[in-house]
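chain below, 269 aa
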Amino acid sequence: MTRTPENLLDFACSALDEVRAQAPLVQCITNSVVTGFTANVLLALGASAAMVDIPGEAGPFAGVASGLLVNLGTPTGEQREAMREAVAAANDAGTPWVLDPVAVGSLPVRTPLSHALRDLRPAVVRGNASEIIAVTGAGAGGRGVDAADGVDAALPSALSLAERIGGIVAVSGPVDVVTDGRDVVRIANGDALLTRITGGGCALGAVLAAFAAVHDDRFATTVAAIAVYTVAAELAAERASGPGSFSGAFLDALAALDAATLRRRAELS
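prediction:
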C-alpha cells in the first residue's frame, strides 16, 4: 500500500470494521490504576480484554492471545516477571505486542526494564515525547507521566528507536506522530480531556494491540488505531461537560464510530 494520507484513511476505515468482525483478544499487562478503563475501551471498540498478568499464566496466555500490551505504569516484581514471560511467549508465537514505557527516565526500576523490553523488539512502542526520548537513553523523562518535551523534539529519537526495534513508534501529543524510521505520519485529532481522565493514554496502547492483531501492516494499523481513538475523543468532548461525563461519552463514541464519520473527521498528513 502506498502510504498517502488518503490510502491510510481508507485502511483505517476497513481496519475498524475488521476489529469489530474479529474481536481480537488483547492480553493487558498494565498498571493497576487503569485496568477497568482499559478493558472498557477494548469492549467499546469491539475487541476483548484479558488482564492476565501473573507469572505462570502470562506466558501461556500470550501464546494464544491476539495481541499483547505491556505497560510499565506500576511495575511490581510479579508484574515484571510476567512481562518478561509474556513477551518471550509472544515472540515465539508471533503475537504482536505493544510496549508503553510509562514514566521512564530517571526512575531506577522501570527505566532499565524499558530498555530490556525495547531490545526484545516490540511491534509498537507508544509513549509521550519525554518517554520516547528516555526509552532510547537520550533523556531523563518528564514529570512523572507528564511530558516535558514536545512531539517534534522527540522525532529524532522516534526515528532511531523505530529502526532499532524494526517496528513502529507512536509519539502521543497534541498532534500524534507515527514512524517506522523512514515514513512519518501526523494525526491532528483528539481533545485535551483525554489528559484529564485516568487511562486516557494507557488505554491507547491496548487499542494499538487490537488493531495490530488484525493486519500485518503495523504502520497502517498504528495510524488507524490512533485515528479511531482520537476522533472518538473529539466526538466525546463535543457532548461532555467535563472529565466525568467525557469518560462515559468516550466509550459511547468508540462504540458508535463508523467509517463515514472517521473519514470525515480524521486529519492525517
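The first helix runs from residue 5 to 22. The domain at 5-265 is CATH 3.40.1190.20 (UDP-N-acetylmuramoyl-L-alanine:D-glutamate ligase).
thats it, cya
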